[in-house]
Design brief:
single chain; alpha/beta; Enolase-like, domain 1; 3 domains; five-stranded mixed beta barrel; 14 helices; binds flavin-adenine dinucleotide; binds adenosine monophosphate
Length: 479
């Protein structure tokens, strides 16, 4: 280990590890400090995403979906099984193995690219210099030409429901239950609340979701949000809107949750309670008082469009800076900063960040909604296509949902695509690519899609913008 680097990255989540790998690929002498300890108590790379976020949640979502299908749908397909049951211990072991494989993969990538991994805590000093406090050993000061801050985020906590790690947990605790709670409360009908509510609901919990807002998924297309809510309710999630949690009491092995809605105060009793009310940037202990980096009014590390902080040669990326708290957004910022340090002109297109909710069906979108465009006074055309008219979706017995393509009324440029449906997380990439290339709905319509495939729904919705969809009756006049 040298104590002089070209780049020191603090944080090895998707934003930090991607920045570090790309810096090293570009010939910069790079170290990456991370303080996380994994389940085994050993240092782990990959941050929230790999250890307690995207990956373990998807491992549980995928298994619980297979389980629910086997239990509820196989019979209708003509597949006979005995009684289908779940062994949560094995489910959790497998999740741990997936996480270990991927975090080990980052370690291997660091080695292969020559990134020095430093296990411990980093703190930005003036200079820029970084104080590195290893888990075991004395702190030392690292000199570096540039520093990239990627400290990520942590769960928001709320006063009415203090976490106790057993009955009241955050998303991390909800990924580690050792049995299926008979009854489960989820505070927050956001992305994380709905995904974790789905996991445990599929495994057999009676789930009640309490959401303070009146509007379900306010960031989504209104029709898609409405349909998604109906489908999730049909799966058994009891979603109560306008329900603000105001108190809780753990007693006799269960939790009493008190909430208020416009009819007054109510309470529910649940075996476990997940607090899924969002995440906040994690900057505790990160900045020496005179380091020159400022926070914005919401506590995020303040950066410009190119992720430069107010301190010379110090950059910040990922969940700790403005923009959606998504792994891929952080990764792209990491690449941008690394490539700019190497003299390239890379930028992040913040208008083309896809979002996904991995419920079933999945919800995915990119770009703007009709409501946003209307309030901006913009003129647009809309094409939709239901999966109920997709041969592939029907064959797969997975035909709930729709694709909506929104295009500028004058130029036909695609402004937004919104999908509720099977594999929406994969389908949305087609829209992102089209938008990244400034594509029009006609461009997508003139592109050939394999038949039968779910992607044809994207094709047909794009054709529908001009009233040309072939496999459904167009409401617009053909020309
Ligand atoms: P993080 O992944 O939080 O990593 C930051 C790292 O920095 C951590 O390891 C932390 O310990 C370390 N660190 C912080 N401060 C210091 C310091 N001073 N010294 C040393 N180390 C430090 N996003 C998606 O895009 N798709 C999903 O499906 C998805 N699912 C999610 C599911 C759940 C349950 C949760 C909680 C999140 C999910 N997210 C998802 C969000 C995603 O995990 C984050 O957007 C992503 O991890 C942010 O990456 P990051 O690198 O900015 O920070
Ligand atoms: P997200 O930020 O997408 O993870 O969503 C978190 C959700 O939690 C938001 O929709 C908030 O409205 C909701 N929320 C926050 N505090 C409370 C509360 N006390 N009771 C119920 N819902 C809450």
């Amino acid at each position: 280990m040298t104590d002089k680097y070209d780049v020191v990255v603090i944080g090895a989540g998707p934003a930090g590890y991607t920045a570090a790998i790309r810096c090293a690929q570009l010939g910069l002498n790079t170290a990456c400090i991370d303080k996380s300890l994994g389940e085994s108590g050993d240092p782990t790379l990959g941050g929230t995403c790999l250890n307690w976020g995207c990956i373990p949640s998807k491992a549980l979502l995928d298994v619980s979906h297979k389980f629910a299908e086997a239990r509820d749908s196989f019979k209708g397909f003509g597949i006979k099984t005995g009684k289908v049951s779940v062994d949560i211990k094995t489910v959790m072991q497998r999740k741990t193995e997936v996480v270990a494989k991927l975090t080990g993969g980052i370690s291997a990538l660091f080695k292969a690219n020559g990134v020095i991994a430093l296990a411990g805590t980093g703190r930005l000093l003036t200079g820029p210099r970084v104080e590195y406090a290893p888990h075991d050993g004395a702190a030392q000061v690292l000199e570096s030409t540039h520093v990239i801050l990627a400290p990520g985020s942590v769960s928001t906590q709320i006063e009415p429901t203090p976490l106790d790690g057993e009955f009241i947990v955050d998303s991390t605790g909800a990924l580690e239950f050792d049995s299926v709670p008979a009854t489960l409360g989820v505070i927050g009908a956001g992305v994380i609340g709905l995904e974790l509510g789905s996991v445990w609901g599929r495994f057999g919990s009676d789930v009640v979701v309490l959401e303070a807002l009146d509007d379900f998924l306010p960031m989504c297309d209104r029709r898609i949000a409405r349909d998604a809510k109906k489908l999730l309710e049909a799966q058994g999630l009891d979603i109560r809107m306008g329900a603000r949690v105001v108190g809780s009491k753990v007693e006799n092995g269960s939790v009493e949750v008190r909430y208020q809605d416009n009819e007054g105060e109510h309470s529910v009793h649940v075996d476990k309670l997940i607090v899924g009310v969002g995440r906040i940037p994690y900057t505790e202990g990160l900045l020496a008082p005179d380091c020159g980096v400022n926070l914005d009014e919401r506590g995020f590390l303040y950066v410009n469009d190119l992720c430069a902080t107010d301190a010379p040669h110090v950059y910040a990326v990922g969940d700790a800076v403005r923009g959606p708290m998504l792994a891929h957004k952080g990764m792209d910022e990491g690449v941008m900063v690394a490539e700019r340090l190497a003299g390239q002109k890379t930028m992040v297109n913040y208008d083309c960040v896809p979002s996904v909710i991995y419920t079933h069906p999945e919800v995915a979108w990119v770009g703007r909604t009709e409501a946003e465009l209307k309030s901006d006074g913009e003129k647009f055309n809309v094409g939709t296509f239901p999966f109920a008219a997709s041969g592939r979706a029907l064959a797969a017995h997975d035909s709930d949902g729709m694709v909506k393509v929104i295009a500028d009324a004058e130029t036909d440029r695609i402004l937004g695509v919104h999908i509720l449906g099977p594999q929406a997380s994969e389908l949305i990439a087609q829209a992102v690519i089209a938008m990244e290339f400034n594509g029009s709905a006609e461009d997508l319509g003139l592109t050939m899609f394999a038949h039968p495939s779910l992607s044809e729904a994207v094709h047909e919705a794009a054709l529908g913008v001009a009233g040309h969809a072939v496999h459904m009756v167009n409401r617009k006049k053909r020309n």
